[in-house]
Amino acid sequence: MAEEKKQEQAIVPPPQYNLDAKWDACLDLGVRRFAYFSLIGGFAGLLLFRSPVTRWASTAFGAGTGLGSAYTECSQKFGGYPGKLTANVSEAPITKDGEH
Known about the structure:
Layout: H1 2-10, H2 19-48, H3 52-78
Helix pairs in contact: 2-3
C-alpha cells in the first residue's frame, strides 16, 4: 500500500506540460503588472496632469499597458504567440537589370 502511494506521487509531469504552474505564473504576472503599471500611470498622472479625468485616464492607460504586456508574455509561455515576425529577404543580390 505504501509502495503504491510512493509510485503515484513520483509521477509528475515535466514543467513544460504542467498547466497549473503556467496558469499560476500567468495570473501572478498579470496581477503584478496590472498593479505596478497602474501605480506608475497614476503617479505620472499626478505629475503631468491637472484634471482628475486625465489623471484617471493615465492610470487606466497604465493598467491596460500592464495587462497587455502580461498577456503577451503569457501567450509566449503557452506557445500561442509567435514572437517577433521578420520579413523574408531573398539571399540573391538585386542588380540594376533586374537579373539575379
